[in-house]
Amino acid sequence: MLAMELGAEYVDIEFKVADKFMRLLSGKKPENCKLIVSSHNYENTPSVEELANLVAQIQATGADIVKIATTATEIVDVARMFQILVQCQVPIIGLVMNDRGFISRVLCPKYGGYLTFGSLEKGKESAAAQPTVADLINVYSIKQIGPDTRVFGIIGKPVGHSKSPILHNEAFRSVGFNAVYVPFLVDDLAKFLNTYSSPDFAGFSCTIPHKEAAVRCCDEVDPIARDIGAVNTMVRRSDGKLVGYNTDYVGAISAIEDGIRASQPTDPSTSPLAGRLFVVIGAGGAGKALAYGAKEKGARVVIANRTFARAQELANLIGGPALTLADLENYHPEEGMILANTTAIGMHPNVNETPLSKQALKSYAVVFDAVYTPKETRLLREAAECGATVVSGLEMFIRQAMGQFEHFTGMPAPDRLMRDIVLTKT
């Protein structure tokens, strides 16, 4: 009441007390003040029918603006809120709380949401997973998002650490491509893709742990991605079909080759991987991509994994031996070996972890780590101390992202810009 008297443009009242507040007002609401009536559900996101009934009940209180905040138990819940935003005939704020609901905060203008909330700075959020105002404006260009904006994003679990939104959104802006790129925290990939199947959801990057499932979820898969058994890029064609690609293997292998060429004398006519013993740690999607790429370049590939059965499965596919991580500690059949870590060991926040001891690293001439947060992992730091040539996961990240950009937009990647963004802003 006092806020209204003092000239507040908006007053937000909880739905549970809205009737009581309206009686208190008794028709004396100032003309320049809009009344937001809010309903909060901290348990789940009800059905579309229940949400529509709630909208009607809130409208009936005399609200100028309807506000509904629900909770996501999985990311597909957000689709119901988008449906309500599109259908609603009155001004509506519709947000889904927590990390799985994050996309509701960024994509609401696409579906006609009245506003979204951002914190003034990191650590000052008024709700979990609330972005900062600076990120909404500078990373996601929220003021430019409209009904025709196409949606891209990175599918993963976890996904909050990813630098891909910073990189792709700025790259899209630089070429005038009307699109936004968001993080999708996904538990069930097939369910996610079935729910967000409209042409507006035009393409996805795919990271841990969904790269192998993505092969099964695509309508068509590029032959190389099928051979690898992992997809890190999905594009929705104009006919609605999802096509899967793998840009990881080119990104990683070219980064390792260039790292070797820059530090060691090599024969320019052949790959510096040819004939070398190449040890891959990890048997997931990225491990498969590295193993496939290294074998294609003539390397002798060895697979090491925490779970021996998975290591053996991949080793059989590429025709090489399999080891456990424990075996790898004492594995040094020759000098000058190449090591590639494709697991999440050492990734933020577990920055003190490493897949291999410093003692064991002494047998390797080249060490690559797919982890790029932090920029220098413990593995790379200790490998450098042992005298190895080190290749950062940032290089793979930049190169695979360029490949994705080209699949998403059909345009050449802005090479220099994307490299500058990764090196300065991430």
UniProtKB/TrEMBL annotation:
Residues 154-233 form the Shikimate dehydrogenase substrate binding N-terminal domain. Its EC number is 1.1.1.25. The keyword NADP applies. Residues 393-423 form the SDH C-terminal domain. Gene3D superfamilies: Aldolase class I (3.20.20.70), Leucine Dehydrogenase, chain A, domain 1 (3.40.50.10860), NAD(P)-binding Rossmann-like Domain (3.40.50.720). Keywords: Amino-acid biosynthesis, Aromatic amino acid biosynthesis, NADP, Oxidoreductase. One of its GO terms (molecular function) is shikimate 3-dehydrogenase (NADP+) activity. It holds the Pfam family DHquinase_I. InterPro entries: Aldolase_TIM (IPR013785), Aminoacid_DH-like_N_sf (IPR046346), DHquinase_I (IPR001381), NAD(P)-bd_dom_sf (IPR036291), SDH_C (IPR041121), Shikimate_DH (IPR011342), Shikimate_DH-bd_N (IPR013708), Shikimate_DH_fam (IPR022893). One of its GO terms (biological process) is amino acid biosynthetic process. Residues 273-344 form the Quinate/shikimate 5-dehydrogenase/glutamyl-tRNA reductase domain. This is shikimate dehydrogenase (NADP(+)).
